[in-house]
Design goal:
The chain is an alpha/beta fold. It folds into two domains: about 240 residues, Aspartate Aminotransferase, domain 2; about 120 residues, Aspartate Aminotransferase, domain 1. The chain contains twelve helices and 14 strands. The strands form four sheets. The chain has a seven-stranded mixed beta sheet with strand order 1-9-8-5-4-2-3, with helices on both faces. Bound molecules: pyridoxal-5'-phosphate. The site of pyridoxal-5'-phosphate has 15 residues, from helix 3 and helix 4.
Length: about 375
């Protein structure tokens, strides 16, 4: 058996090589490297896919979050609430803007922001909530929106891991992840579900005024060439990346289904294994399985990883350290008891390889190896 990595970008590329190579070559031939027609076309196509009024492409998912907060006019000292169990980018940009990050615990079943913890963290200084749709399924947006409405807060959805997921409201209507709050953000980092061949990101909104502001901020605060109405940044999706994304966007749903199939295979294989908890999908969301994450019970995680590694199977810990315990983000106001779920998850989660190119025999090889250790 060939070594099994967490993702198989090479296998995916081989299947679309002709289209990708032609698209990239076209950009090179045109020399329209920055803000070329490919970027505009991708923007339109993503707006259609997401059924959102405005997509503003930018340089990466971290910038997308920062620019979203700049557009909302948040000011130093304003409190922004996000989840303790996620990638650091979300809390990082809050801190970069001199806003005050308030981290809250997550739910143990879904790994997404805990609604009760969120409610308890609201103060008169709270200005925004950033739910992260972790590992590929949406946070409880109906509850988040209700809290936001009650307290007059902005909602920014970090959709870096869940592009393509569908959220269902109690009234039966559905929306794409990232188009539910005031602003949604995503990343096109190569290993994300819709990945380009370098860095890339985008911001979504249905609000015309916010869209105008966001478009200015990504471009040095310029609305008219060489007139800078506000402090902006330089954050662009380059044309070559847009050309790659235009080939891959029509395949996103197929890719999501392929990931779901892998998850189903794993779930089925581990269904009788009491020392493993398989991922649970909330009723209000589809899951696009950016990660397939197990929770281990009474199993030595390091030894299991070694056992898999001996068989050339990669595995990963997303995430090993709660954000509130990271040196950069500790805060005397935090109380350890308020992070019991995240603290426990950081010690017990293990993510298995998941991507769009698996063969049955590879999946069986992985599940056999896990079961050999965990039975
Ligand atoms: C990947 C990721 C980001 C950052 O995206 P970059 O494009 O790497 O800057 C932000 N939030 C989450 C949850 C992510 O997974």
């Amino acid at each position: 058996m060939q070594p099994i990595q967490m993702v198989d970008l090479k296998g995916q590329y081989q299947k679309i090589k002709n289209q990708i190579d032609v698209s990239i070559q076209n950009v090179i031939d045109s020399t329209a490297f920055i803000n070329g027609p490919e970027v505009k076309a991708f923007q339109k196509e993503l707006e259609e896919y997401l059924d959102v009024k405005h997509v503003i492409p930018c340089a990466n998912g971290t910038d997308a979050l920062q620019i979203a907060m700049m557009a909302l006019g948040l000011e130093p000292g304003d409190e922004v609430i996000t989840a303790d169990f996620t990638f650091a980018a979300t809390v990082e940009v809050i801190a970069v803007l001199k806003l005050t990050p308030i981290l809250v615990d997550v739910e143990k079943d879904t790994f997404n922001i805990d609604i009760e913890a969120l409610k308890k963290s609201i103060t008169p200084k709270t200005k925004a909530i950033i739910p992260v749709h972790l590992f590929g399924q949406c946070a409880n947006m109906e509850a988040v929106l209700e809290i936001a409405k009650q307290h007059n807060l902005y909602v920014i959805e970090d959709t870096a891991q869940a592009i393509g997921a569908d959220y269902s409201f109690a009234n039966g209507s559905t929306k794409k992840a990232g188009t539910i709050g005031d602003i949604g953000t995503t990343s096109f980092f190569p290993s994300k579900n819709l990945g380009c061949y370098g860095d890339g990101g985008a911001i979504f909104t249905n609000n015309d005024d916010l869209a105008h502001k966001l478009r200015g901020i990504v471009n040095h605060g310029m609305y008219k060439r060489y007139y800078h109405d506000e402090v902006g940044v330089n954050s662009r999706l380059d044309s070559i990346q847009a050309a790659v994304l235009r080939v891959k966007l029509p395949l996103l749903d197929t890719y999501c289904n392929a990931r779901r199939k892998v998850a189903e295979h794993y779930n089925h294989a581990f269904s009788n294994t009491t020392n493993l908890t398989t991922p649970i999908t909330s009723s209000f969301t589809t899951h696009v399985f950016h990660q397939y994450t197990l929770v281990l019970h009474g199993i030595d995680r390091g030894k299991l990883q070694q056992h898999l590694s001996d068989k050339n199977i990669a595995s990963a810990i997303y995430y090993p350290v709660p954000l509130h315990s990271q040196k950069a983000y500790t805060d005397t106001r935090y109380n350890e008891d308020d992070f019991s779920v995240t603290n426990e998850l950081c010690k017990t989660v293990l993510s298995l390889p998941i991507h769009t190119e698996f063969e049955e025999d590879q999946l069986k090889y992985i599940t056999d190896a896990v079961l050999e250790f965990c039975k």
